[in-house]
TrEMBL record:
One of its GO terms (cellular component) is ATP-binding cassette (ABC) transporter complex, substrate-binding subunit-containing. This is Trehalose import ATP-binding protein SugC. SMART domains: AAA. Residues 4-242 form the ABC transporter domain. It is found in: Cell inner membrane. It catalyses: alpha,alpha-trehalose(out) + ATP + H2O = alpha,alpha-trehalose(in) + ADP + phosphate + H(+). InterPro entries: AAA+_ATPase, ABC_transporter-like_ATP-bd, ABC_transporter-like_CS, ABC_transpr_MalK/UgpC-like, Mo/tungstate-bd_C_term_dom, NA-bd_OB-fold, P-loop_NTPase, Transp-assoc_OB_typ2. Keywords: ATP-binding, Cell membrane, Membrane, Nucleotide-binding, Translocase, Transport. Monomer. Homodimerizes in the presence of ATP. The complex is composed of two ATP-binding proteins (SugC), two transmembrane proteins (SugA and SugB) and a solute-binding protein (LpqY).
Length: 368
């Protein structure tokens, strides 16, 4: 499988005032499952389309192994049919007048593969995707999950060097999405494929990817393993984009800070050894919070904030506890049945290593 390298790639559309993709450096390693994650309009689909050859970059270069496939400066643009890549769209794009078998064989017919070989490959991938019993059905006779499997089988039949998936699970219900995530993990393992998966769903990225590239407003914000992205966000955008409930953030810029802001400011000042972050912020994830009764003895030097329990929400196997600290609502999660009740005065404690400090620009302040 090939390695894909994007070097300072920019894409600007003629009528746009800003770049859809701006100065993007990204390497997708051989056999990697790379998820490109971000909100709508961040440039992730444009990036995928440039890799596929459906869009040409404005500047920069795209290489597959040592072969340049897109470079305005070098006057190179390899069309999509010569890039050895398979693409699955959000809409599946199945031919409505073709049966499952004929849809799967379509790419092979374009490549002038012999009829017997087409049939053999179609049978093979239908068995792998568990859709062989639907071989003679038309797309209108298939469920959303079955159509998704047909679209993936059509791509697998041509055995592409790279699989490009553009939010392929967004049209499925929650149960089918879970099943298809497991299916994609199995495909990646069985075929040892290089996969580039575009999504706005953080949990898809966290459960599928070997590495995640987070984008915002056309620029790469952070790239790393799911654990790195979640536990060590490079900036406040990444920290707030990942997590449900989202990370708790306390701004430190108030002229007359409330007690919870003062506590966060004192912690940040001590934790960063005096780094000037008076207008920055601190963040801590809901699962990092421990809730004790007000005034109970403290253990360690973590962040402590007093508050009042506002609501307790059962989410099936876990609980979300909403706490009011002065005028701010903060959230904690736990897998243990809470002993507190709405109206109880409590103290929230967060271990030092679980508190993230951000400067005025929103960049993470590295402790020490």
């Amino acid at each position: 499988m090939p390695t894909i390298t994007l070097g300072r790639v920019t894409k600007r559309y003629p009528a746009a005032t800003t770049s859809a993709v701006d100065d993007l450096d990204l390497t997708i390693d051989d056999g990697e499952f790379m998820c490109v994650l971000g909100p709508s309009g961040c440039g992730k689909t444009t990036t995928l389309r440039m890799i596929a050859g459906l869009e040409q970059s404005t500047s920069g270069s795209i290489s597959v192994d040592d072969r340049v496939v897109d470079s305005v400066d070098q006057g190179v643009f390899v069309p999509p049919e010569r890039r050895d890549m398979g693409l699955v769209f959000q809409s599946y794009a199945l031919w409505p007048h073709m049966t499952t078998r004929r849809n799967i064989e379509y790419g092979l017919r374009l490549r002038r593969v012999a009829r017997a070989e087409r049939g053999r490959r179609a049978d093979e991938v239908m068995a792998v995707m568990d859709i062989d019993r639907y071989a003679d059905r038309y797309p209108s006779q298939l469920s959303g999950g079955q159509q998704q499997r047909v679209a993936l089988a059509r791509m697998l039949a041509v055995n592409p060097g790279v699989m490009l998936l553009d939010e392929p699970l967004s049209n499925l219900d929650a149960r089918l999405r879970l099943e298809m995530r497991a299916e994609l993990k199995r495909i990646h393992h069985d075929f040892s494929s290089t996969i580039v998966f575009v999504t706005h769903d953080q949990w898809e990225a966290m459960t599928l990817a070997t590495r995640i590239a987070v984008m915002f407003e056309g620029r790469l914000q952070q790239i790393g393993s799911p654990t790195d992205i979640y536990d060590r966000p490079r900036n406040r955008f990444v920290a707030e984009f990942l997590g449900n409930p989202p990370i708790n953030v306390i701004g430190l810029g108030d002229a007359a800070p409330a007690p919870h802001v003062a506590a966060a400011s004192a912690f940040a000042h001590a934790r960063t050894r005096g780094t000037q972050i008076v207008s920055g912020s601190v963040g801590f994830r809901p699962e990092s919070m421990r809730i004790d009764g007000r005034g109970e003895p403290s253990a360690g030097d973590g962040l402590m904030i007093d508050g009042t329990v506002f609501a307790i929400l059962a989410t099936g196997g876990s609980w979300t506890i909403e706490v009011v600290a002065d005028d701010r609502h903060l959230f904690a999660t736990t897998s243990v049945t809470p002993t507190c009740r709405p109206g109880d005065e409590i103290t929230m404690r967060v271990a030092p290593e679980d508190v993230h400090v951000f400067d005025t620009a929103g960049d993470r302040v590295v402790v020490g």
